[in-house]
Amino acid sequence: MRVQGMSRTLVITQAAIIAALYTVLTIFAASLNLASGAIQVRFSEVLTILPFFSFAGVPGVTIGCLVSNIVIGSDIFDIIFGTLATFIGAVGTWYIGILFKKTGKNFLKFLSPLPPIIANTIIVPFVLAYAYHVPDGIPFLMLTVGAGEVISCGILGLIVLTALFPIRDKVFRV
């Protein structure tokens, strides 16, 4: 089986590396109390840009989120719906990457962080409100979670995208 010209072994290997990096970065953020709660900036969310380059980023960040949420002791609803938000965002970013490869339109690179920002901004506040009983209202939680996502996915993610873009063929064997 080949995905985007990649062998199954390569996809699995890259996904495993991405998942491991995501987990380590989330644990680090958790040690600084930044991985959960109304105000969160998960450094690991920077990796949600990787599906732009390769399908391996989709299972990589999804599994990384799942494992991270289990390891840091998240509520079961956070484990399920937080992982779902990451998966939705990863698929959206992957799709934007496909559109970029087909059209070569540079503006798509700058849209690539939007799917994880939007997915997490919509889903995570409900998890915080209903699973963790965070007393702030949903609109406020959307603002705070969205701000954290803009920092990690938008700003830092685009820095990573810009750094990896010139070497993407070597790193991801696109």
Write the layout of secondary structure elements.
Elements: E1 2-3, E2 6-7, H1 8-31, H2 57-71, H3 76-103, H4 107-111, H5 114-131, H6 138-164, H7 168-172
Description:
The structure is a single chain. With 174 residues, the chain is mainly α. It has one domain (2-172): Orthogonal Bundle (Arp2/3 complex 21 kDa subunit ARPC3). Helices cover 70% and strands 2% of the residues. The chain has 7 helices and 2 strands. It has helices spanning 8-31, 57-71, 76-103, 107-111, 114-131, 138-164, 168-172; strands at residues 2-3, 6-7. It has a two-stranded antiparallel sheet with strand order 1-2. A hairpin with a 2-residue loop joins strand 1 (2-3) and strand 2. It starts with a strand and ends with a helix. The model has no long low-confidence stretch (mean pLDDT 92).
Short description:
The chain crosses the membrane at residues 12-34, 46-73, 79-98, 110-132, 138-165. The protein has 174 residues and is an all-alpha fold.
Largest sheet: 2 strands, antiparallel
Cross-sheet strand order for the largest sheet: 1-2
How many helix segments? 7
| End-to-end Cα distance | 15 Å
Organism: Catonella massiliensis
Keywords: Membrane, Transmembrane, Transmembrane helix
InterPro entries: QueT
Protein name: QueT transporter family protein
